[in-house]
């Protein structure tokens, strides 16, 4: 199965971010530009597995999605389509997940969806989109696929370590400039 993956870090604790997105009925609150109205059918709670949310996109398309799994402990929920306007889309499963970034007290957030579209694709694939708050006039934009990109993880880990060194030096009154090393030249 093909997978596209993207994520973001939000400058807020994971518990605060989860409090905003945990309610399956809250989609219209934190994504109001694209989802102007959303409601849970049959009086179920927004964290009750089996709940069905019904909403209309800004373009007028009506969708219904069912909550398949919900965990406050692990800060995620998974859902599928019951009704959608996308011809050929089958076996749709989507997950939103919030994880704490413990060294910075931020939140790592990801949303992904896997589905089959026999009219367009030869095999199932996954789309993922960051959940970064942006000005309303800015629409979504394409993110790069970094699945299995361990080099990126190592680069970011090294950058965080260097930032910590600079901060520690500054606390001692020492000015330390960020590294300007060319990665192709090796360590100097």
Could you tell me the CATH topology label of the largest domain: Alpha-D-Glucose-1,6-Bisphosphate, Chain A, domain 4
Which stretches are poorly predicted, pLDDT < 50 over at least 5 residues?
none
Summed up, the helix count is 3
Q: Using DSSP, what is the number of strands?
A: 8
Biggest sheet record: 8 strands, antiparallel
> What is the first-to-last residue Cα distance?
43 Å
Percentage of residues in strands: 25-35%
Helices and strands: which structural class? alpha+beta
Just give the CATH class of the largest domain: Alpha Beta
Instruction: Report the average pLDDT across residues.
Output: 77
Radius of gyration equals: 20 Å
Tell me, what's the shape?
elongated
By CATH, the superfamily of the largest domain comes out as START domain
Report what the structure shows.
The chain is α+β, with helices and mostly antiparallel strands and 188 residues long. It has two domains: 8-128, Alpha-D-Glucose-1,6-Bisphosphate, Chain A, domain 4; 147-175. The chain has three helices and eight strands; from the N terminus they run βααβββββββα. It has helices spanning 14-21, 27-30, 150-171, and strands at 8-10, 37-40, 52-56, 62-71, 76-83, 89-101, 106-117, 125-128. Strands 1, 2, 3, 4, 5, 6, 7 and 8 form an eight-stranded antiparallel beta sheet that branches. The mean pLDDT is 77.
């Amino acid at each position: 199965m093909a997978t596209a993956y993207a994520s973001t870090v939000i400058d807020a604790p994971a518990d605060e971010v989860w409090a905003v997105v945990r309610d399956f009925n809250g989609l219209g609150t934190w994504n109001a530009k694209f989802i102007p109205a959303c409601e849970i059918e049959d009086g179920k709670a927004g964290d009750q597995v089996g709940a069905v949310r019904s909403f209309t996109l800004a373009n007028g398309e009506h969708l219904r999605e069912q909550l398949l799994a919900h965990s406050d402990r692990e800060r995620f929920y998974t859902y599928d389509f019951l009704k959608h306007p996308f011809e050929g889309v089958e076996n749709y499963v989507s997950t939103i997940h919030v994880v704490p970034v413990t060294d910075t007290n931020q939140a790592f957030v990801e949303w992904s969806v896997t589905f089959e579209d026999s009219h367009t694709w030869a095999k199932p694939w996954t789309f993922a989109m960051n959940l970064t708050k942006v000005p309303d006039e800015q629409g979504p934009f394409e993110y790069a696929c970094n699945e299995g990109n361990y080099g990126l993880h190592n680069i970011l880990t090294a950058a965080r370590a260097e930032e910590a060194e600079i901060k520690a030096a500054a606390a001692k009154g020492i000015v330390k400039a960020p590294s300007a090393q060319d990665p192709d030249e090796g360590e100097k």
